[in-house]
């Protein structure tokens, strides 16, 4: 009976990547020593999210010298959270750590996270940013506003200043896989599970190379997905806006009637203009909020996968190192001659 060696893997490290060719050498130079020192079997699941640069080919070069490295290639760019989902679902380890490729989150903290989880029997260990001085003031303020809002909408179990650098047990990963959510926001889903958790703090560094993959537009999209995935509060806001607009218009009506009875001229176009603008704005806001939820319902009904895996190197042998390939070619030439 064959033994599945995948079941013996202690730790999986999932790294979503998109156009990270410049960051890969520095990432490997820091990540591999950190993982080699844990004294347990591991795998690194690098998820290439449809990169347009040389990320895939560079990963193949590293895989020739690093057998623990797996490369999962998606057929198209599906987004950070979808790539993270693909990595989590493809991992084999009893514990799974997710980390970005930009080295803003230090891989040297991974052994500490694993040791804490094993010692205290935790299912979740969050990497919490204790110092974000390398981020811009705008980034720190918007991040603070995001976590403040999420803690009030979702609950206080949302860990402040914890991104996607975290450790999950196999039980936690299987629980996430069982959820029907198509647009998964792990910063909120993981705390929602309620598994025993701990924290490891660290200093957030600057991006080692390349450009950020989370510009303002994607940050806004993440905030909208977070709110609409976990709370019906925007719909309640629409209801309250409707009530407020009703009473405001009722007040304008009373004012107009009193002015008419008193014989005071009513400035018709001004009051009408303000009332129409106010009611129109409220209606558009309410329609937009309803549209967000209807759109999510439509997406859920379609049941389309959020990603497609093009290839997984776990099902293929590792490529031979460059030196070995050259020696084999020389031997073949000598035999033919």
UniProtKB/TrEMBL annotation:
The keyword Transmembrane applies. The chain crosses the membrane at residues 240-266, 272-294. Belongs to the glycosyltransferase 2 family. Residues 12-175 form the Glycosyltransferase 2-like domain. It is a multi-pass membrane protein. PANTHER family: PROPHAGE BACTOPRENOL GLUCOSYL TRANSFERASE HOMOLOG (PTHR48090:SF1), UNDECAPRENYL-PHOSPHATE 4-DEOXY-4-FORMAMIDO-L-ARABINOSE TRANSFERASE-RELATED (PTHR48090). InterPro entries: Glyco_trans_2-like (IPR001173), Glycosyltransferase_2 (IPR050256), Nucleotide-diphossugar_trans (IPR029044). GO terms for molecular function: glycosyltransferase activity. This is Dolichol-phosphate mannosyltransferase. The keyword Calcium does not apply. GO terms for cellular component: plasma membrane. Pfam families: Glycos_transf_2. It comes from the Bacteria. Keywords: Glycosyltransferase, Membrane, Transferase, Transmembrane, Transmembrane helix. It is found in: Membrane.
